[in-house]
Amino acid sequence: MDALQRIEQALAAALSLGLADDGPPKLARAVRHAVQTPGSRARPRLLLAVADACGDDVPAVSDAAAASLELLHCASLVHDDMPVFDDADTRRGAPTVHRLFAQHGEQLALLTGDGLIVLAFENLAWHTRGHPQRLGPLTLIIARAVGVGHGIVAGQAWECETDVDLTQYHRQKTAALFSAATAAGAAAAGVEPAPWCSLGEHLGLAYQVADDLRDVAGDAAALGKPIGQDATHARPSAVSQLGIDGAIARLEDLLTAAVDAIPDCPGRAKLAAMAQAEMERLLPAQLRAASRVARP
Amino acid sequence: MDALQRIEQALAAALSLGLADDGPPKLARAVRHAVQTPGSRARPRLLLAVADACGDDVPAVSDAAAASLELLHCASLVHDDMPVFDDADTRRGAPTVHRLFAQHGEQLALLTGDGLIVLAFENLAWHTRGHPQRLGPLTLIIARAVGVGHGIVAGQAWECETDVDLTQYHRQKTAALFSAATAAGAAAAGVEPAPWCSLGEHLGLAYQVADDLRDVAGDAAALGKPIGQDATHARPSAVSQLGIDGAIARLEDLLTAAVDAIPDCPGRAKLAAMAQAEMERLLPAQLRAASRVARP
Description:
The structure is a homodimer of 296-residue chains. Chain A is mainly α. Chain A has a single domain (3-294), classed as Farnesyl Diphosphate Synthase. Helices cover 68% and strands 1% of the residues of chain A. Chain A has 14 helices and two strands, in the order ααααββαααααααααα. Chain A has helices spanning 3-18, 25-36, 42-53, 59-81, 105-127, 132-146, 152-157, 166-188, 197-217, 220-223, 229-232, 238-260, 268-282, 285-288; strands at 90-91, 94-95. The first copy, chain A, has a two-stranded antiparallel sheet. In chain A, a hairpin with a 2-residue loop joins β1 (90-91) and β2. The radius of gyration of chain A is 18 Å and the shape is globular. The first copy, chain A, starts with a helix and ends in an 8-residue tail after the last helix. Chains A and B meet through α2, α5, α6 and α7 of A and α2, α5, α6 and α7 of B.
């Protein structure tokens, strides 16, 4: 089974674990929509790639960690898309959760995000029943990546402040979950996670720069979400700070740093190739030729 | 140290764990406000009372479970008070989180609720480092009490449906967290939690009936939140369904059932007295004389 199949299967298992047959039907529909609308699954794929490089001795645990990480990412998308933040109509080429219902859409979106956060931790606890020593480290890695200190929630909250450090903002809003992906991939395989954080951190920062570039030079249909959002919401962006060429140069530097940060292991070359391919996929077509990222 | 002191200390420890000195300051203020505005702490007090009755062999674990349960309760209050649900101005005698800021109040309230859910699980994982076998059961008990299947999130989502079963609605919206309090109190002390669920379930249902009674016959100043909310939001309520006398009779039956459900243990009499006192505290003064609940 390839990584994407493992992830979709693990997400389906998490939904079965959390949703009840006799639960409120609209919420169940909203939760399934938020999770099962096809996405890139970039974070859980990275987690499984690192778990693989670390031996992946208990695939049930790495699968659960991958699904939980994606559930948290989905939760953040549902809440970020709500009118109180981005007021986005589409996500992953489909209606956003709050747009899915003629009535109570915002209420259901709020509850869906809350429920997905809870389910992420329930799912992790359930699938580590046979390996209780791995639950604590995984919970801490994943919780910190989304939390109020230095996680996604903190990153998003910088949008409510007047003085914002762009690096800290991006590190928390995006890189934190990538860093958690690599650390959790190691921890899921019973390997010390600390040496793996730097790879995820650099990839996450690169991912955010690519996202900023796509927001100005991408195609809404291909992205499945509206473009021009950073300018609309006056959000800090690598492009507004560095210009397009500067942002591309920064992306190249971050990718090089990411590859350099891969700990010595048998899967090193495979991981480096994956990081390179991922960045090529993310860069808008019209910018690809100008960039060293896409060089063969 | 009494239970309330233990709870406040455990909540302060959770906040220190989650919040970072260099994190976004408005979010930190919102999170502290949501947690540290004085509340009854009914759920964590119940958890500690059961842990005590079960021997409380590792107080650091029961303290953490108590704090995590209260963090989840606070998260649900912050989100329920938002304009998308109750649009409440006050809570616990203070401004609601979204009313605390001249700008970005709703965004900060949304993020505060999200962050508190995450912190609840992080806190549990951190304080069970020395007792990893207890983390899984506690995480599952607490997650299910708030989740999309039969937890608080499901309970709240019934408000978005047209066909609502009042018992299921109350069981999920309120009783689930009380049932988790008693089950987690046992699990925190290393005792099989299942026999303890029924006590919490009945107390939680009684608590919801008392809350419905206070919503029609209570005093907003004493409650610290607006009254008449069920009628305003056309929410299902024990009073609208059974009338005031019927709701009082139901409260009495539930309290009797709760006391009967206490498993045989040395702390049985102490727990029964606590349940009785709690219900007396919750019943509006003008209804107390008419009720057997308050008889000596």
